[in-house]
From TrEMBL:
Its EC number is 3.1.-.-. InterPro entries: MBL, RibonucZ/Hydroxyglut_hydro, Xnuc_lig_assoc. It comes from Tritonibacter scottomollicae. This is Ligase-associated DNA damage response exonuclease. Gene3D superfamilies: 3.40.50.10890, Ribonuclease Z/Hydroxyacylglutathione hydrolase-like (3.60.15.10). Keywords: Exonuclease, Hydrolase, Ligase, Nuclease. The keyword DNA damage does not apply. GO terms for molecular function: exonuclease activity; ligase activity.
């Protein structure tokens, strides 16, 4: 069959006619296959949901046990209607997966969000050969070249040493980024307690239960003492908390933010970030183009970001590509 017939674009999202299911739909549908637990991909209200066990657990934490009428853990190759589906690590956040869909020998892979740099808080990306590769383009411009996370963590620790009387407040999204920063600190030898905002507690507890060694985490509250107790400490919270009185609890805080967008200086200034940390859980331009080159699919479908630049690169390198222009996907909300 023509591989391009495996998936079609509908208002609800990507739809597989032969399996009668959607992948990461933006509206409630009878049957959804979910790549990962971020809110712009995993929504509540579907009839049935198939995802990795970790993604289903994360959806339960975020939405409650009744987030779908039925749920199924993705294991091995599963027949859904006339399509065969399997889930493969995406390297984005805990439980994240690419979804491989096969019909009559033709294969499409929906990568969801993915990253190629090793992520100590989740399984690494697994290249999956395919005829159609659906890729994100969050950082789909040649200017985006993210440094190794270890380098950014070293900058954070250097600042902690330089300003021992100040607390360092790191803005990091609750699912994935916060745990990635914590693991980066642990790998760099930071064995001291790390203080976390209450909004991160459940997801951090779940990572620990899944074998991710986050170490000594403590509540970022002043109930135990005064502001002075946080001198020289590292505190991690969701970016939304930095606009509240919560951030005022700490001694002369150094405001940091961990995001691939911190490469854009204007964004750092807009957020009042003193120490921008370029730490991303998405592919940058070199890793995005490397992935397409390695997989060498018949067609590349591009969504979620700077589609035009990726399409142009594909054209210049003799590859067939098209934009999906799906509506409703954006950066993870706090």
């Amino acid at each position: 069959m023509n591989p391009a017939e495996i998936l079609t674009n509908r208002p609800e999202g990507l739809y597989c006619p032969s399996g009668d299911f959607y992948v990461d739909p933006i509206k409630p549908v009878p049957r959804a296959l979910i790549t990962h637990g971020h809110a712009d991909h995993a929504r509540a209200g579907h009839g049935a949901v198939m995802a990795t066990a970790q993604t289903l657990d994360i959806m339960s934490i975020r939405y409650g046990e009744s987030f779908a009428e039925a749920r199924q853990v993705a294991q091995g190759v599963t027949q859904v209607g006339d399509a065969s589906v399997s889930f493969h690590p995406a390297g984005h956040v805990l439980g994240s997966a690419q979804i491989r869909i096969e019909q009559q020998g033709a294969v499409a892979v929906v990568s969801g969000d993915y990253a190629r740099e090793a992520n100590p808080s989740c399984a690494s990306f697994e290249p999956v050969p395919c005829d159609i590769f659906v890729t994100e383009a969050t950082f789909g411009l040649p200017v985006f070249r993210h440094p190794p996370m270890a380098d950014e963590i070293a900058r954070l620790l250097a600042s902690v040493r330089a300003f021992p009387d100040r607390a360092h407040l790191v803005g990091a999204y609750a699912l994935g980024k916060a745990q990635r920063v914590i693991m980066g600190l642990r790998q760099a030898g930071w064995d001291a307690p790390i203080y976390i905002h209450g909004a991160l507690q459940q997801l951090c507890d779940y990572h620990i239960a899944q074998g991710v060694p986050l170490g000594d985490l403590r509540p970022a509250t002043v109930a135990r003492g005064s502001k002075a107790d946080f001198k020289g400490s590292i505190v991690i919270g969701p970016p939304s908390a930095f606009a509240s009185t919560w951030a005022q609890r700490f001694p002369d805080p150094v405001i940091c933010f961990a995001s691939g967008w911190m490469q854009v200086r204007a964004r750092a200034r807009q957020r009042g970030v003193e120490l921008p940390l370029i730490i991303s859980d998405h592919v940058d331009w070199p890793d995005l183009t490397r992935t397409i080159t390695e997989l060498n699919p018949e067609e590349t479908w591009v969504t979620h970001g700077r589609e035009d630049a990726v399409i142009r690169w594909c054209e210049m390198t003799g590859r067939t590509a098209r934009p999906l222009r799906l509506i409703g996907y954006e950066d993870e909300a706090d």
